[in-house]
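FORM 12-B: Structure-to-Sequence Request
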C-alpha cells in the first residue's frame, strides 16, 4: 500500500463513539468535559484548564495546518463532545504515527467508548493509511494510561528518561509503546472481542 502524501480530516464512526475533526465549535462541550473530574489537576497528564481550552484547540489546529497532527473531537452516542485525541508526530514517508494527546471526561473513562476509539484509530492507521507502526507515549507515573495502552496489546519499546520538562518544572520520563503491522490482525481481534463483551 502506498502511503498518502498528506492526511486530510476524516470522521470515524462506531457504535459507542464518533471521532470528528476538531473545530472551535466544540469549545463549550470540551470545557464541560474537562471539568468532569477537574482533569487539569492531574499532574502526570496535560488536560487544558477551562480558560486555556480555546488556545489548546487553536494549537492543535495549527499543528494540523503544519501537517504534523490530525486532531479529533470524541463524541458520545448523543453527539456530545466528551474528549480529544489525535494522530500526531506523523511521518507518512516512514509510514508511522503516534496516537496521543488523548483525554476523556471522567464519566466515560474505562468504558466501551475508549476501546472503540482506539479500535477506530488503529484500523484507519493500519488499513487505510498503510502504517507499519503506531506509537503510544505516556508519563512513566501515569499508571492508568500505561495499563490501558498495554491492554490494547501494545508492547513497551523503552523509556526516554528526562524526556520532557512539564509546565510545573518537573522532568517526565516517557514510556514509548507501539503496535506494528504484523501484530495488527491479532490486536484487532482482541479489541473487537473486548468491545463485543462490553456491549452485552
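FORM 12-B RESPONSE
SEQUENCE OUT:
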Amino acid at each position: 500500500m502506498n502511503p498518502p502524501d498528506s492526511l486530510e480530516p476524516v470522521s470515524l464512526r462506531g457504535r459507542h463513539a464518533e471521532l470528528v475533526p476538531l473545530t472551535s465549535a466544540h469549545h463549550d462541550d470540551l470545557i464541560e468535559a474537562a471539568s468532569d473530574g477537574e482533569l487539569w489537576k492531574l499532574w502526570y497528564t496535560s488536560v487544558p484548564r477551562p480558560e486555556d481550552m480555546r488556545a489548546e484547540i487553536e494549537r492543535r489546529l495549527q499543528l494540523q495546518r503544519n501537517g504534523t497532527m490530525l486532531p479529533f473531537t470524541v463524541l458520545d452516542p448523543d453527539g456530545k463532545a466528551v474528549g480529544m485525541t489525535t494522530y500526531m508526530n506523523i511521518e507518512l514517508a516512514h509510514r508511522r504515527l503516534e496516537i496521543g494527546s488523548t483525554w476523556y471526561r471522567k464519566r466515560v473513562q474505562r468504558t466501551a467508548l475508549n476501546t472503540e476509539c482506539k479500535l477506530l484509530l488503529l484500523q484507519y492507521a493500519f488499513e487505510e493509511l498503510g502504517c507499519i507502526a503506531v506509537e503510544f507515549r505516556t508519563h512513566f507515573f501515569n499508571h492508568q494510561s500505561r495499563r490501558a495502552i498495554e491492554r490494547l496489546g501494545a508492547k513497551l519499546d523503552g523509556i526516554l528518561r528526562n524526556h520532557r520538562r512539564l509546565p510545573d518544572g518537573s522532568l517526565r520520563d516517557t514510556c514509548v509503546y507501539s503496535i506494528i503491522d504484523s501484530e495488527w490482525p491479532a490486536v484487532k481481534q482482541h479489541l473487537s472481542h473486548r468491545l463485543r463483551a462490553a456491549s452485552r
